[in-house]
Amino acid sequence: MPYRRSALMQDRLADNRARIMRATRHLIARGGFRAAQIAAVAGAAGLSTGSIYRYFPSQAQLFIEVLTAAVAHEIELLERIATAPGAAAARLKEAVETFARRALEGRNLAYAFIAEPIGTQVELARMRSRREFCASCGFGSANNFMPAAKRPGTSLCTCAATSPCRPCVLTTRARVIKSALESLANSVRETSGAKALLRANR
Question: pTM above 0.85?
Fold first, then answer.
């Protein structure tokens, strides 16, 4: 008779796996991929170093799964914004501001998931995740934010074309993104200035 794990054992294994992934994400958020060495992950998860390999065959596979889960969460957030009621331009601006703000708040994590030098396996997974993320934002084939921009005479398309107007869509995207980033940059400058003032008054 084949061996079957008990429900209690399955729950324990699933809990350990989740702890490893949480610990890895936390370490990456503190210091990038370089901070998430297997020994450090094991210590943060409260497990032995050898036990990590029971759940993940390699450090690269662990990083890939953490990366994939993180990107899936970001896509879920953006899709929630994309499908919300309201003007397309307003939703696009909210999406850009949300992404940029989260990236600024978690800079090490953002750098690791976007550009930190890493091995080939993780880099390939990162490229796939980037394509999925761009598609969810409407910059790829999934044009979630600009469905109304295809009609002439709308607030997003002012030319006389009767067919889908890609130039107007792209121009509007650029304008909205520029506005969102400028707004965010002003917020960052104000926050930095306030922090500098607090330090000076201590």
Answer: no
